[in-house]
User: Which sequence fits this backbone?
């Protein structure tokens, strides 16, 4: 058995039958050819995954690297390998005067994971920049390209979490960033910035995220554990009769987004523990491992939170973190 504790930022004690590492496109094709009928789980940097039990299969680390850029009069086109670190790509782009990613600074994980989650922060989601995604189809071991319009992007969602879940291996992403850059400062603390540069936005986002979220290198966690729920405006109106100060964000004419952290905080979960798993005392949306936490403790606390929110607000929280058990994905 191979330890997985160092491969996911929650740092739970778990093992797998075997480990593999994808460093070249040839590695990827070889792995798919020889393992497509055996259980395996594809892992980036483990920042959105928690191994809650020993996994009965092979865990595959995606370590493909490479960045190439081309440009025309209006856009930069970036081809980026799936194993590149996302935050380091944001820094690289700013160093090369390529702007657009700055709102997404300090989001942990790899480039290959970005389209799966449709990562987003501070009013920007990655779907606006994705031109296409390259993947290997497990069924025929062929390299395929899927255009943005076919990725079914939604809030923390994509075709890779649904129709193509565990059917493909993402090996690269092509991004298109306009040269005619406009800052996006409509969300949260960014609204206070006056005529900011892309670097100013990057600096503020990093400052705020570091203040709000614990460093997983020091305290095991996977960032926001739950998604911010989206509810109808009718449901919001009913809830505001009971909770007039409930915050929300506009999403479209029919729906709004409610901060999950606010819901959890209202129920007094900040600082609550289940064994060595704790709801962070300053950021209720983050569950942390104090050192000796177990998968059972994590699931127990997460379920308590989910059930309490549903009882009080009639809102069903969805966990953003992928929970991996012995046979694969586990739902709360």
Assistant:
């Amino acid at each position: 058995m191979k330890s997985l504790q160092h491969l996911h930022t929650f740092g739970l004690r778990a093992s797998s039958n075997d480990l593999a590492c994808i460093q070249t496109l040839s590695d990827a094709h070889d792995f798919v050819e020889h393992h497509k009928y055996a259980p395996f789980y594809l892992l980036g940097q483990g920042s959105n995954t928690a191994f809650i039990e020993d996994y009965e299969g092979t865990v595959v680390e995606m370590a493909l690297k490479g960045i190439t850029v081309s440009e025309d009069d209006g856009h930069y086109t970036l081809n980026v390998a799936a194993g590149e670190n996302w935050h380091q790509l944001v820094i690289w782009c700013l160093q090369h005067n390529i702007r657009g990613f700055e709102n997404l600074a300090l989001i942990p994980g790899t480039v290959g994971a970005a389209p799966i989650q449709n990562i987003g922060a501070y009013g920007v989601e990655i779907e606006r920049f994705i031109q296409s995604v390259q993947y290997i189809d497990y069924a025929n071991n062929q390299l395929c390209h899927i255009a943005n319009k076919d990725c079914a992007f939604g809030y923390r969602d994509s075709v890779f979490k649904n129709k193509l879940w565990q059917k493909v291996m993402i090996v690269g992403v092509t991004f298109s960033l306009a040269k005619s850059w406009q800052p996006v400062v409509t969300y949260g603390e960014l609204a206070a910035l006056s005529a900011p540069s892309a670097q100013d936005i990057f600096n503020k986002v990093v400052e705020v995220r570091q203040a709000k979220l614990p460093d997983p290198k020091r305290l095991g966690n996977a960032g926001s554990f739950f998604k911010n729920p989206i509810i109808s405006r009718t449901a919001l109106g009913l809830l505001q009769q009971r909770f007039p100060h409930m915050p929300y964000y506009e999403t479209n004419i029919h729906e709004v987004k409610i901060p999950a952290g606010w819901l959890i905080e209202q129920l007094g979960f900040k600082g609550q523990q289940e064994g060595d798993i704790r709801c962070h005392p300053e950021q209720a949306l983050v569950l942390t491992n104090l050192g000796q936490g177990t998968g059972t403790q994590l699931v127990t606390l997460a379920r308590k939170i989910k059930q309490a929110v549903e009882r009080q607000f009639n809102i069903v929280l969805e966990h953003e973190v992928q929970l991996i058990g012995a046979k694969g994905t586990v739902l709360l």
Remarks:
- The radius of gyration is 20 Å.
- The chain has a mean pLDDT of 95.
